[in-house]
Amino acid sequence: MTPELRNDYLEALDLPEFLYNKNDSIPNAEIIVQCLLVETSSEKSFCEPGDTKNLLVKMLSSIGLSLNNTTSISIQSGDLEENIKAYTAKVVLVMGDSINSNSDNLFFTHHPRSILENPALKREVWEVLKKVKQCLS
After folding, report:
1. What percent of the chain is modeled with pLDDT above 70?
2. Are 90 and 83 in contact (CB under 8 A)?
3. Buried b / exposed e across 54-93, counting CB within 10 Å, b at 16+?
4. pLDDT in the model for residue 98
5. Helices and strands: H and E segment counts in the chain
6. Is 107 exposed, middle or buried (0-12, 13-18, 19+ CB in 10 A)?
7. Which of 118, 122, 120 is nearest to 109 (CA)?
8. pLDDT tens digit string along 13-40?
9. SS3 string of 61-107?
10. pLDDT tens digits for range 49-72
11. Above 80 in pLDDT, residue 76?
C-alpha cells in the first residue's frame, strides 16, 4: 500500500491526522548486524551444513553470539573493504587466509575447517574470540 493510499483510507475513516504519513517516502531503518563473518575460501564452507558449521556455531555461542545475529559472506579474492562495505557490522571476523585491512573492528582467525584439521589452533582462535566479545560489549 502506498503512503498516499493509506492517507486516503485514514481520511475516509475519519481517523486522527497524526496517523497520516506526510512524507513522500518512508525512511528505511538501518539494520546493524552484530558480527559479519567472512570466509576467504568456500572449500568446506561454514555456510553449508556439517562439521564446519557445527564448530562455527559452538565458537559463536562461546562469546554470546548465534547465527541469528551474524551475517556470513564468502570472498575469494580482492580488497576486503570493497567486499564488506555493503554491510554495517559492529565487528568483522575474517576466517581464513590473511587479507590486509586497516579497520579497527576487524579480526582475523583460523577458519573452523582448519581447526577441525588441527585442534592445536583452538587456543589461538579462543584469544581472538575473546577480543571480538570485548569489542561487542
Report:
1. 71
2. no
3. ebbeebbeebebeeeebbbebbeeeebeebbeeeebebbb
4. 60
5. 5, 4
6. middle
7. 122
8. 766 555 555 544 444 444 577 888 888 7
9. HCCCCCHHHEEEEECCCCCHHHHHCCCCEEEEEEECCCCCCCCCCEE
10. 889 889 999 999 999 998 888 888
11. no
**Whole-number Å distance between alpha carbons of 99 and 113:** 18
Is pTM beyond 0.85 here?
no
pLDDT of 120 > 90? The answer is yes
| Cβ 70 vs Cβ 33: under 8 Å | yes
Give every CB contact of residue 71 below 8 A, 6+ residues apart in sequence. 33, 35, 36, 37, 87, 89
User: What is the chain's Cα-based Rg?
Assistant: 21
For residue 90, which phi and psi values (nearest 5 degrees)? Answer: -65, -40
d(CA 132, CA 15): 49
